[in-house]
Amino acid sequence: SEWDLKILCMGAGYVGGPTMAVIAKQCPKIRVVVGDISQKQIDGWNSDNLPIYEPGLLEVVKEARGRNLFFSTDLDKEIQEADIVFISVNTPTKTSGIGAGRAANIKNCELCARQIAKVAKSDKIVVEKSTVPVRTASAIQRILKSNENGNSFQVLSNPEFLAEGTAITDLMNPDRVLIGGQQTPEGLKAAETLASVYANWIPREQILTTNLWSSELSKLVANAFLAQRVSSINSISALCESTGADVSEISRAVGMDDRIGKRFLQSSVGFGGSCFQKDILNLVYLCETYGLQECADYWRGVINMNDFQKRRFSEKVVAAMFNTVTGKKISILGYAFKKDTGDVRETPSMFVVRDLLQEGAKLHIYDPQVSREDMWSEMSYTCGVNHDNTPRLDESVTTEDDVYKTCEGSHGVCILTEWDEFKTLDFKKIYDSMAKPAFFFDGRLICDHKALREIGFEVYAIGKPDPNKFSGV
Ligand code: NAD
Ligand code: UDX
């Protein structure tokens, strides 16, 4: 064959698409196919209007697509062709049945394994790229054994650590690549095959190999630790608002201790995204399953703090605006769960929108990357707010393409995503167009509050001394 190796990735989402595009870019002699059951998703990947927004992604895709990178819905054929099959499908929190609201649903992973078992005609390495509960590899291995052609399969765990908004740089230059495999000669050989793919651009000492269970569990632990830092600093933000301390000063002072480190200490309206909450809940459920209730409660606390932080923000808005926002226009700047992505899964913005809708506010929302359709579907899926159960939803929420128009005539502005473009808005122009007193709520700590106050805004910011209690700080 003209190829050194053939790879298929099942699942062309936020992880499968960018990860495979980078492998293809870095390994021109490997044939990489990204497959999905969704024709719409694959059509998107085959166009210049990619299904996800990620800085630098289109360039990478364009470089490799048609050369050694292909997108297809013909999964049966591509499974047969491939030497390595990645499973990179979604593993959302279960919404019903045993473990509802906590356990990860690995149904999609199981379906992939069953399809591989059914159609494979040669030996293969099957790689869990999805984030899964520890010990999922043993289930995948048992399903693969049902293959009738007597082929052998090695299951590897290779969790993905990329963050959205920086996927391409994270993939090009990862802190580490983690590969877990069975500690048998065949397992170690399979792990080496996968390691040699990454070694095309990643230094060997950053490619870590472990047993299967450590690899699966490390992914949940890494996300739990990161989210824990955000919840820790957010808990302090509440204390700051009451005491006159400033959370940014605390992050700086605490983070300069090398043992603690600077990153992930940015206080915010709360963490969002498809991973943190889901993966911590997954960990909580695992602890419960193994009878470790104290461990489950410990990690549950990280989520409880995040829920408190989101709720606290909405309550602050209402309290500041004379305890009522009914009929008032409030502008929401930012709907994505962080900057540089159009992803809205579990975005804190949505929870603020939900709370303010319940208070009767009229919301005008602006986000440079999020479509109205995506706002509604996530709102309905996660918050249960939809057109059927919430009359006049369309009248209460307006989405705008122009940020100044969004703010025109509003009583309050809320910054809920840290988009760079929000840092340099003409706030004087915004102030002049608003109802007075003009309220400003910075949920991301990206604006110059002193300058805003000089313009005339009444400014509230996460973790900053409450202006009504502490003047001149
Ligand atoms: P996603 O929803 O963006 O993409 C999943 C894709 O899989 C969808 O396009 C879906 O149509 C497809 N799919 C579902 N069942 C399939 C099947 N049987 N065969 C083929 N395709 C199928 O999800 P994602 O954000 O890419 O996440 C995938 C996994 O990676 C999850 O387990 C997630 O926890 C993990 N992860 C995500 C991130 C992230 O930042 N999004 C980071 C690290 C790990
Ligand atoms: C996360 C992990 O970082 C990544 O390694 C993993 O593979 C997937 O989950 P992601 O959810 O894409 O990545 O974004 P991340 O940058 O971790 O941010 C998650 C949330 O935490 C965002 O809502 C972000 O705004 C918030 N956050 C992050 C803070 O509020 N403060 C911080 O200091 C850092």
TrEMBL record:
Enzyme Commission code: 1.1.1.22
Superkingdom: Eukaryota
Residues binding NAD(+): 11-16, 36, 89-93, 130-131, 164, 275-278, 345
Tagged with keyword Secreted: no
The UniProt record lists the keyword Oxidoreductase: yes
Active site: 275
Reaction(s) this enzyme catalyzes, per UniProt: UDP-alpha-D-glucose + 2 NAD(+) + H2O = UDP-alpha-D-glucuronate + 2 NADH + 3 H(+)
GO cellular component term, pick one: nucleus
Any single biological process term in GO: glycosaminoglycan biosynthetic process
Pathway note: Nucleotide-sugar biosynthesis; UDP-alpha-D-glucuronate biosynthesis; UDP-alpha-D-glucuronate from UDP-alpha-D-glucose: step 1/1
GO molecular function: NAD binding; UDP-glucose 6-dehydrogenase activity
Domain (UDP-glucose/GDP-mannose dehydrogenase C-terminal): residue spans on this chain: 331-449
The entry's keywords: NAD, Oxidoreductase
Pfam families, per the entry: UDPG_MGDP_dh (PF00984), UDPG_MGDP_dh_C (PF03720), UDPG_MGDP_dh_N (PF03721)
First-tier enzyme category under EC: oxidoreductase
Family: Belongs to the UDP-glucose/GDP-mannose dehydrogenase family.
The name this protein goes by in its record: UDP-glucose 6-dehydrogenase
